[in-house]
Amino acid sequence: MPGEEKERINEQARKHDTLEEQMQKTRDEIMKTYRERRGHEKEFLDVIKNQKRYWEDQLRNTDPEKDNERYEELKGKIENEKSLIKQIKDEIHDLNEELKNEKEHKEKEHKY
């Protein structure tokens, strides 16, 4: 009976270790995905900032007295880009926080 009990305990320990490894692999993949997303978001942010500068240049070259409709359209486009820039920055911030939290969690795990 003690041999069977010991074998059962060893089997449970192996299952636990296997599950821990799987969980760590999953967390590593999630972090890799977060880093990739952050990179894509930064690239997208650069594109949107360039587009905003383009609209601002167009706005400077538009006379509001001669073409008020175009002037207002450009102002709206600039506001849309500003809103989008804020959303992207918020997303990058959230991704950075997730990565930071995971790094801290991993460091705590290694201490034990």
Summarize, please:
This protein is mainly α and 112 residues long. It has helices at 2-60, 68-111. The mean pLDDT is 92.
The count of DSSP E runs of length 2 or more, i.e. the number of strands, is 0
Low-confidence spans: none
Average pLDDT score = 92
Q: Report the span from N to C terminus.
A: 33 Å
How many strands, which pairing sense, and closed or not: the largest β-sheet? none
Oligomer: single chain
Radius of gyration: 26 Å
Helix coverage percent = over 70%
SSE pattern = HH
Number of helices: 2
- Portion in beta strands: under 5%
Overview of this protein structure:
92% of the residues lie in helices and 0% in strands. With 112 residues, the protein is mostly helical. The two termini are 33 Å apart.
Which features does this protein show?
112 residues, mainly alpha, 2 helices, rod-shaped
Question: What topology emerges from the helices and strands here?
Answer:
Elements: H1 2-60, H2 68-111
